[in-house]
Design brief:
Blueprint: H1 11-26, E1 55-61, H2 67-80, E2 84-90, H3 107-116, E3 120-125, E4 134-136, E5 141-143, E6 145-149, E7 166-169, H4 173-183, E8 193-196, H5 199-207, E9 213-217, H6 218-224, E10 235-237, E11 246-253, H7 257-272, H8 275-282
Parallel strand pairs: 1-2, 1-3, 7-8, 7-9
Antiparallel strand pairs: 3-11, 4-11, 5-11, 6-9, 6-10
Helix pairs in contact: 2-7, 2-8
Length: about 290
């Protein structure tokens, strides 16, 4: 997904943006003005007061695979806006699945985190169905699902014997695509599909030979192999269809539209100057970019 590139701004403009942002953060109403479903009763949370200093509180899912990357990115975003970052790790009632990003909190619980602690919350997919009180910035990360295999003689999916199994991550958009693709093939030409509950088990079954190839979320593949899938005996082959991308942005309350727009400008800047690509490689979520690219 392409996003518009920001124009260069002078330091005075950054100072003006951060000053206005700080004012808007501080004058936010203490009463919940959210609309729509999943807003908890007022007596179960306490709306926090806003400080008058130039701070922005960005929350991350502390149990998720992306936590260290998102914490580092939150600091870079705040720095780009000349704000002091407060990076807050949120601990959910249940663990996030291994090698995954999904947050095991209800919308009510997320609302309370916004009311009491967070200005923005990292790691939300750009998807439909969010309540009216919440919106998500433009993506700071656009990720893909790839086909990884341990078979050195396989260059495309058609090279795999149909008596060998393919692995997927269950209950995801790409898993649905795999099901539809297999159903489109003649019955004798369909590979068995084995679906696993999380990315760790999926990659484990790929490495132990239970499946010969797997549709794997690319950041999980890199994290599981220390950033070097080839060294672990895995290589990527083309997909016969275009798998859905997973786009991650920052959730904010809808009433904080200026904050959303300002964070979006900072995201554009960090994408353009290579900061986000560098952080992904540093945290074992992607291959380093080749020099000059």
């Amino acid at each position: 997904m392409r996003v518009a590139m920001p124009t260069a701004a002078a330091p005075r403009r950054h100072q003006a943006i951060s000053a206005v942002l700080a004012v808007l953060l501080c004058v936010a109403s203490s009463a919940a003005s959210a609309q729509g479903m999943d807003v908890p009763p007022r007596d179960v949370y306490q709306e926090r007061g806003r400080g008058q200093d130039n701070k922005v509180a960005l929350c991350v899912n502390g149990d998720a695979m992306m936590a260290s990357f998102e914490s580092a990115l939150a600091r870079e975003l705040a720095s780009a806006l000349l704000l002091t970052p407060a990076v807050i790790e949120i601990k959910a009632w249940g663990p996030t699945e291994p090698l995954d990003y999904r947050l095991p909190l209800t919308l009510e619980e997320i609302y309370i985190q916004f009311a009491e602690r967070c200005d923005g919350f990292m790691g939300f997919t750009l998807a439909q169905g969010y309540p009216e009180w919440m919106t998500v910035t433009r993506p700071y990360l656009v990720t893909r699902t790839v086909i990884a295999t341990t078979a050195t003689n396989v260059r495309k999916l058609a090279d795999i014997p149909v008596n060998r199994s393919l692995g997927t991550r269950i209950l995801g958009g790409v898993d649905n695509q795999v099901i539809m693709y297999l159903q489109s093939l003649p019955e004798r030409g369909r590979w068995p599909r084995l679906a696993y509950y999380n990315n760790k088990v999926l990659i484990d079954r790929l490495l132990d030979g239970t499946v010969i190839a797997a549709f794997v979320w690319e950041p999980a593949l890199y994290r599981a192999t220390g950033g070097k899938p080839e060294a672990a005996g895995l290589h990527i082959i083309p997909s016969p269809f275009e798998p859905y991308e997973t786009e991650l942005g920052i959730a904010v309350r809808s009433r904080d539209a200026f904050l959303s727009d300002t964070l979006g400008q900072a995201i554009d800047a960090l994408r353009a100057d290579g900061t986000i690509d560098r952080l992904l490689a540093e945290h074992g979520l992607a291959a380093p970019k080749a020099a000059g690219k």
